[in-house]
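Hi R.,

Here's the chain you asked about this morning:
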Amino acid sequence: MDKSNRLSESKEGQLLTVTNITSEEITWQALRFGLEEGSQIRIEKNINGGPVIVSKNNLEIAIGRRIAESIETRVTE
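And here is the predicted structure, written out as tokens:
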């Protein structure tokens, strides 16, 4: 069974699939970044107490800690 994680807890280099966004307000913000349920992303850097840098389709996106805490993901192979 796949373990679900918050984006804010992810480790650098992980390939992830977004499984849920826990707040409607955060959902709209995430959509502006091109992130929605089913999106495939890679963790480029997770700055302790700061943003999480992810890449999607060769585009790097800095996601603030508050938003990252509301995005649930699972590791993909």
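One quick note: The radius of gyration is 11 Å.

Cheers,
M.
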